[in-house]
Amino acid sequence: MVRLTRTVWIQLAILTVVTVVAGSIMAFGFVKIPALLGIGRYTVTVDMTAAGGLYPTSVVTYRGTEVGRVRSVDVTGTGVRAVLTMNSNTPVPGDVSANVHSRSAVGEQFLELTPTPGADGAQSLRNGDVIPAGRVQIPADIANLLDATNRAVKAIPQENLRTVVEEADKAVSGLGPELSRIVDGSTALGIEAGKAQDSITALIDQSPAVLDSQVRTADSIATWAAHMASITGQLKAHDTTFANLLGQGGPALDEGKALFDRISPTLPVLLANMVSLGDIALAYRADIEQLLVLFPQGTAVMSAIAAPNAGTKQAYNGIYLDFNLNLNLPPPCNTGFLPVQQQRIPSDVDAPERPAGELYCRVPQDSTLNVRGVRNIPCETTPGKRAPTVEMCESDEQYVPLNDGWNWKGDPNATLSGQAVPQYPKGSEPPVAPVAVVPYDPANGDFVGPDGRPYSKADVASPGPKSWENVVLPGS
């Protein structure tokens, strides 16, 4: 009997440990014996209309991660049924769709599970679940695609195909850097578009309203295009004239610029004044329109009146002009003007300041005096109202006459209406001196004023006992 040394036993022990570790790695890491035995795995069935190149041991992925394998692919009476062995460590939502894809150009199909929107919180796939054919997409048959491509290529005449290839070569020959820049730019554009995905999605979602409006206005757009075509046709027909216009337009624009340079100091003032005139014209628009309507008619009437006397010396057949001397009919209006004691003498030649208030005939508006006076001017901004001033037109104040219009009644400076003469705007009347009553001594005319100072007025003193001569004879 051979007796093994201690060294050999140590070597055999190390070899045994290495063998066990290697076998375990092979069994659990590569062969995956627990998975073969169904430990940590569950089965899901996928119904498909066709296999789409899927084969047993194909990879099953979820969000780019391998989560299982295809165990078998069997043909059924209604299509194809694939049985998947899924890893229990990776939860997959139950509401998913399955897509068959190729990893390379030569095939190597795999099955990708894609969750539907909002399915992340749903119940996970469980053992025995079935993914129906309605949620499975398979790629187009490569053989049929190649056959269709072959038939399409054969349908093109060889000479024409050769011409297309040659022309394509001429078109892109030597444009490698430019094409590279186009590809790089397209890639950068795609990346930026991915960053603005929400905005682009909102734009796409909102574009139907704009496109629908274009569809609804298709007739108007067609009409506009027809008119534009007519305009461009006219421009083409008068090309020479239009060219001359463009040639001569430069000097004309220079002259216009020089004109504007010359009038630039006064043009702003003129335009500002035109704005004021525009406001006035806007306020009197109705009157201006009426004038423009009646002026041609008046001109025609005057022409018709003068027509019978054309070329004759007789003045009574057409226009008859008569001068009648009317004195004081109607009488002049004195109401509303300064009283006689405040009026200027006609011989004065100085130029005093005009009164602060308004002076005009202030009789009732229905009076026969001065019927065309300012008191009867219609208010443009207040239809139906007549007033002598713009301020009164634009306020709630109503015109109040001084008297009936024929004579002054009472003190001219304290009339029946209580208005001052002349008429001042409301709130700007001149101050009225207050009137005070104080007792006086009839013997000598002495009295104390409101300010506390003594005064004397001899004409109120009594001269003593009066005789009948003093009463009868003035100044006695």
Q: Poorly predicted ranges (pLDDT <50, ≥5 residues)?
A: none
What does the overall shape look like? elongated
Write the H/E string, N to C: HHEEEEEEEEHHHHHHHHHEEH
**Helical segment count:** 12
- Enumerate the strands of the largest sheet in spatial order, edge to edge or round the barrel: 7-1-4-3-2-6-5-8
The average pLDDT is 79
Bin the strand percentage. 5-15%
Distance between the termini: 193 Å
- Please give the largest β-sheet: 8 strands, mixed
Helix % is 40-55%
- Structural class by helix and strand composition: alpha/beta
Quaternary arrangement of the chains shown?
single chain
The total beta strand count reads 10
Report Rg: 57 Å
At a glance:
By secondary structure, the chain is α/β, with parallel strands linked by helices.
What features would you describe in this structure?
With 476 residues, this protein is an alpha/beta fold. Helices cover 40% and strands 12% of the residues. It contains twelve helices and ten strands. A hairpin with a 2-residue loop joins strand 2 and strand 3. The longest helix is centred in the first third of the chain and has 25 residues, at 6-30. The model has no long low-confidence stretch (mean pLDDT 79).
